[in-house]
Specification:
The complex is a heterodimer of chains A (about 180) and B (about 230). With about 180 residues, chain A is mainly alpha-helical. Helices cover about 70% and strands about 0% of the residues of chain A. Chain A has 9 helices and no strands. In chain A, helix 2 runs antiparallel to helix 7. The N terminus of chain A is likely disordered. Chain B has about 230 residues and is α/β, with parallel strands linked by helices. The longest helix of chain B has 20 residues. In chain B, strand 3, helix 8 and strand 4 form a beta-alpha-beta unit. In chain B, helix 1 packs across helix 3 and helix 4 crosses helix 10. Helix content of chain B is about 55%, strand content about 15%. Chain B contains 10 helices and 6 strands; from the N terminus they run ααααβααβαβαβαβαβ. The chains are: A mainly alpha (about 180), B alpha/beta (about 230). The interface between A and B is large, with 58 and 58 residues.
Chain lengths: ~180, ~230
């Protein structure tokens, strides 16, 4: 049995302050706004429940992100109990074709990130959205640093192949309008 | 330049991410001066990095925390015990007995039981413990309220079209008027978006979100139990 005794008001405020980055990460991983809300809230509840386990409060954000990753993993295990969790499975959400049709670069980028295998998606968003070092990402996802680097490399290769030309095309469109 | 002498993709990534040590960083910068291909590749990586960051600049939770939420979070730990019902499941009979015994000693005005899974062992254990607790409380003359809050797949137990526990819940509700049920409207919205018509069992109410309901109850001094 675990309790919340001993968790300071300052700690609770710091957990609450991470609500937006946690949601942003969860959304980038699952591409489902409602699920991202659920998972972020679940992570915050778990964090309050386990606050005493955090030895170094400077590591709060990384610790919360690790909890978030586990919450999403748990969700997928509950949703697909008979299937092994596959970090190579693509995230879900809007198709790149639909995003292209909308003509919005941000939507297209989100869609392409959603096409990445979950393991690659998590690494690239932890580095690019939240600015974690490779070592921190390794701790968050419980991966060797070499795996972090190789996943990041594959993720960016895939994004480069799919997005650089699209981005250049968008820029040319803007020039022709001007 | 031979392929053997090309700067690896891992090194290029580490450069744009600021993960190289000073010596490698300097060597790579020197290399860039005479290598147009490398400059272009690094520029693309830098652009990609900016694109990823920019793509989520507007991503925010659907419901930003309000002042009331902030007060709620601030009071959560101070007011309430938090029990992990999962402990009842995994720690064996001794801990289950200990948890139940400690629950009986709680003098809170109510207990909110959070069910986020429809797995049989989770739901059955939760309902059994709730029933045992309510029976003991009644026998001891303790007036206590219990609310079961369900979200995610746990909401299946409160839906008339999916619940395998409808009769059991009806019987419990009839026997204990101090037992209430709340379903997460956020989970329901997600189901509605998929075309599911969400119908709840009689007597079940919607809460805006499971978290809102739990925090509200904890602000009122209730005990939180996670199934």
């Amino acid at each position: 049995m675990r309790g919340l005794f001993g968790v300071s008001a300052q700690f609770r405020a710091r957990v609450e302050a991470q609500r937006e980055p946690l949601y942003r990460l969860a959304y980038s991983w699952c591409r489902d706004a409602a699920l991202a809300d659920d998972v972020a809230q679940e992570a915050m509840l778990r964090a309050l429940d386990r606050g005493a386990q955090l030895a170094d409060e400077k590591r709060l954000k990384a610790w919360l992100c690790a909890i978030l990753a586990n919450c999403l993993k748990d969700h997928y295990r509950r949703a697909r109990p008979l299937e092994p969790l596959d970090e190579d499975m693509p995230a879900q959400g809007e198709t790149p074709e639909a995003a292209s049709a909308s003509g919005q670069l941000a939507a297209r980028v989100r869609a392409e990130i959603g096409r990445l295998p979950l393991g690659q998606c998590q690494v690239v968003t932890l580095v690019d959205l939240e600015g974690f070092s490779y070592a921190e990402v390794g701790e968050i996802l419980e991966l060797p640093i070499g795996t972090v680097m190789s996943r990041l490399c594959r993720a960016r290769e895939a994004l480069r192949a799919r997005l650089i030309e699209f981005a250049a095309g968008q820029e040319n469109k803007l020039r022709s309008i001007r | 330049m031979s392929r053997e002498r090309e700067v690896s993709r891992e090194m290029q990534n580490a450069f744009v991410d600021g993960q190289l040590d000073a010596a490698d960083w300097t060597a790579l910068v020197e290399r860039m001066g005479g290598d147009e291909s490398l400059r272009r590749q690094l520029c693309e990586l830098r652009t990609l990095k900016d694109m990823v960051k920019g793509a989520y600049a507007d991503a925010r939770p659907s419901r930003a925390p309000t002042a009331a939420d902030r007060r709620g979070w601030a009071r959560v730990a101070g007011l309430a015990l938090v029990f992990a019902l999962a402990g009842w499941l995994v720690h064996g009979a001794t801990d289950r007995g200990q948890a139940a015994a400690e629950l009986r000693g709680v003098s809170a005005g109510g207990i909110v039981v959070h069910v986020a899974s429809s797995r049989g062992e989770v739901v059955n254990t939760a309902l059994q413990e709730v029933e045992d607790y309510l029976r003991d409380a009644r026998a001891a003359g303790r007036k206590v309220k219990v609310e079961i809050v369900a979200n995610q797949t746990g909401m299946d137990i409160l839906r008339s079209d999916t619940s395998a526990y409808a009769k059991r819940l009806e019987r419990l509700h009839a026997a204990y008027p101090n037992l209430t049920f709340s379903a997460c409207n956020q989970t329901a919205d997600r189901l509605r978006e998929k075309g599911v018509a969400v119908k709840l069992l009689p007597g079940v109410h919607f809460a805006p979100t499971a978290l809102d309901e739990i925090v509200k109850r904890m602000q009122q001094g209730w005990v939180y139990i996670r199934a």
